[in-house]
Structure formats: structure tokens, C-alpha cells
Amino acid sequence: MFQIEVVLNSITHAKDLVSIAEGTPCEVWLHCHRYVVNAKSLLGVLSLPFMEEAKLSLETEDQQVIDEVLKRLSTFHLLKGESAINDKAYDLVALGEILIDFTQEGVTASGQKIFVQHAGGAPANVLVAASKLGSKTAFLGKVGTDAHGRFLKTTLEAEGVETKGLILDSNFFTTLAFVELDESGERTFSFARKPGADTQIQKEELPLEILKQSRIFHVGSLSLTHQPSYETTFYAVKYAKEHGAMISYDPNYRASLWESEEIAKEVMRQMIPYTDIMKISEVEMELLTDQSTPEAAATCLINQGVQIVLITLGKDGAYLYTEEGGQLIPGYLSHVIDTTGAGDAFLGGFLHSLSQHPILMSQLSLKGLTSHVRLANAVASLCVEQMGAIPAMPLKESVCKRFIGFA
Questions:
Q1: Which of the listed residues 157, 285, 342, 389 has the most CB atoms within 10 Å of its CB?
Q2: What is the Cα gyration radius of the chain?
Q3: Is the pLDDT of residue 85 over 60?
């Protein structure tokens, strides 16, 4: 049985609720104090002594039925505690680094490595992955006025990402990353970022209206490595959360950008108390939790207030964890060429799928989240079959073919 708290403070609300219940292919009951009535009976609902908050019970475990009821309750503004989250202009907004990935793609006849320019940066990658699936997205960050910065702005716009919050600053150079690949497609990074423009965004430069209009607000940890982006990131997270956004966080550890591993641990963990949705890799589990298994790491994060933990396991898929428990969700077979952006593709797919369902954080269930993770696995499995990060984010049509039932 599925239960959800609803708002019931007028005859109009009662009529709307009965209309929703009547269209539901299962028994639906309305609980108000000690009273229980058939929610499909208008006379029964109107007989309740108080027109106030109540609970709706659905005698079903069919997630499609539950999703449809939640969607209709949201449309009629009957969900208790619901902010204007479903009226927001943006499904997903991200703040952080956007940079050039110079990715190794072969060698010259004399044995010198060839590096090819690709747009990258984890928060930007996440946005593009979601945008290609149909999400309304916006990026907040800073690049230089150099050729690289202009290229990045054009790239985001071509991918359908809103760039009103992307600042071009002539005082700083766009961050560059050089990505070398081994035979299995795994990467090592070298950064040109002393300082990079992405670390220089000031909180006064944030477009607050975009933050207010965020359904989900996403950040990584690379904006926490330096000031003023450190202070700006926390300011943005708190502001977005105060205005009803879910907060998504991907630590995305890059050792060469931190003074030491101990400092990285201390700073990266500071974001956890503000986080609703957290994605980490196997490598980052111990850094963030001092635990070495997915179950123990996820439990540690849940105990700190995170509501959804996603631990990516490469070809083995992902481990999903909520306060209800955990579940391993297998991945898809892939012909791996380049793993750059795979975790970002996964998270972009998950956040896109989640944003399309009018469900509050308090209503999310382990069972209901599994389909979002399966879709995310499909997106990641396609990303690794292409070179680069942003260029490798798959189109919805490709994801449809790999993920049966996604439309």
C-alpha cells in the first residue's frame, strides 16, 4: 500500500481529489484523523468533519499507477508541502567548472601524442546529458574571453543549455585539462588552472532569478578548491535550497587540484549536510566516508541527511541507496572507447528522469527510483562508446534503443 499526505481544505479540493481517485485502477482510501472513507465517493469525502490535511492510501505497488496519481495530485496542487517546484522554469541548473578537455587521440608518425579539443567540465557535462534527453537546463559559471571561453559558450548554446549565467571575464584564462587514456580507456588528468576563470566567480555575480527557478540544483567539488568560488558555491546551494530546489552533489575528486588529500577530505565533506542527492564513485567512497564498501559508505551518507546515494560501479552498474535500504542495479554492455564523462552522463540521465516526475523528496521510494537508475546506466553506457565528454552525451533516440520503455 502506498500512502501520501494531501491538502484538503475546500470543497473544490475534495471534488478534485475524488475525480483523481475515480480514475485510479485500484482501491483508494482517504484518512482524516480517526475517519477513513472511500476516496472515490464524493459523499464520503464531504462527510468528513474537517476539511484539512489528510492521507490518501492506494492499494497498489504498481509504480506507474503511483506516478500517475502523484502527477495528477500535483497538477491540482493537492500534495502537502509542495512548493512551486513543478512550476519552475528549469529542471536542472548547475554551477561550477566548464573547461577544455584536450583528450589524447593517437600519436604522430614520430610518436608525439595528439590532443584534440573537447568541451568539458563535470557540471556542464551533467547539464548537456540532461538537455539531450529533454530537460530544461541552465549553467552558472565563468570562463575567459579567450577563444576557449567563446567556444564553450557556443557549445552549451548548441546543446540547448541556457547561458545567461555564464560570465566571460577578460581578467582570467579559461581552465584547460589534458586527458591521457590508457589501453582500457581510463584517464589521467593534468590541469592548467592557476587560477582558472571557473574559480573566480563571485557570489555577487550569481543570477538569483535562475537559482529561484531551479527544480534541481547541482554542484561538484572542483568549485570548492579555491576562493572565491568556494564561498560562491555554498551561497548558491543555500539560496537554491531555501527556494525549494533539490540539491545534487558529485564530489568528483581530482587529486592534482588539491593541496593534499586531507584538505580535500575536509572540504569535500562540508557539502554533505546540504545534499539531497549524492553521486560518488568507488574511488571516492573512502574519501567521503572512511568506508570501503558501497553499503557502509551509503549508510554513512544517509545518516548525515543525504536522501538518495548513487555509487557508480563502472561496467557493473550502480548501487542505489535510500533510508529503505540498498539495491544494485546492473549496467549495460558497452564497447568502451573513452570513459571521460561517464559518471556525468549517468548523473545527467538520473537527474533528468527524476525531474520529470512531480514527486517530493519525502515521497521517493527505493522501488520508484530504480527505473531512474536504469535509465542513467543506459546513458552512461552510450557515453563511453564515443570520444570526449560533451560530444559523447547520447541523444534521446539512442537511449530509447538501449533502455526499453524509456520515452
A1: 389
A2: 23
A3: no
Grouping H, G, I as helix, E, B as strand and the rest as coil, residue 199 is helix
CA distance 157 to 152: 9
> Which residue has 548548441 as its cell numbers?
158
Under DSSP, is residue 312 helix (H, G, I), strand (E, B) or coil? Answer: strand
3-state secondary structure of 197: helix
For 59-79, letters b (16+ CB in 10 Å) and e give ebeebeebbebbebbbebebb
Task: Please name the amino acid found at residue 243.
Answer: H
Q: What are the strands, taking DSSP E only, across 214-276?
A: 214-220, 246-250
Of 206, 209, 241, residue with least CA distance to 223: 206
Question: How many whole angstroms from its chain centre is CA 375?
Answer: 13
Cα–Cα distance between 285 and 288 in angstroms, integer? Answer: 5
Q: 228: which 3 cell numbers?
A: 572565491
Cis peptide before 391 (omega within 30 of 0): no
Output the DSSP codes for 104-166. EEEE-TTS-EEEEEEEE-HHHHHHHHHHHHT--EEEEEEEESSHHHHHHHHHHHHTTEEEEEE
Q: What is the pLDDT of residues 90-148, one digit of tens each?
A: 999 999 999 998 877 788 889 898 888 889 899 999 999 999 999 999 999 999 999 99
Cell numbers at residue 28, please? 483508494
Q: Three cell numbers at 369?
A: 527510483
Q: Which residues does 407 contact at the CB level (< 8 Å), separation at least 6?
A: 400
Backbone angles phi, psi at 99, to 5 degrees: -150, 175
Assign 54 to helix, strand or coil.
Answer: strand
Q: Alpha-carbon distance 88 to 212, whole Å?
A: 8
Task: Return the pLDDT at 407.
Answer: 46
What are 2's strand-pairing partners?
Answer: 58
Q: Rounded to whole angstroms, how far apart are CA atoms 385 and 202? A: 37
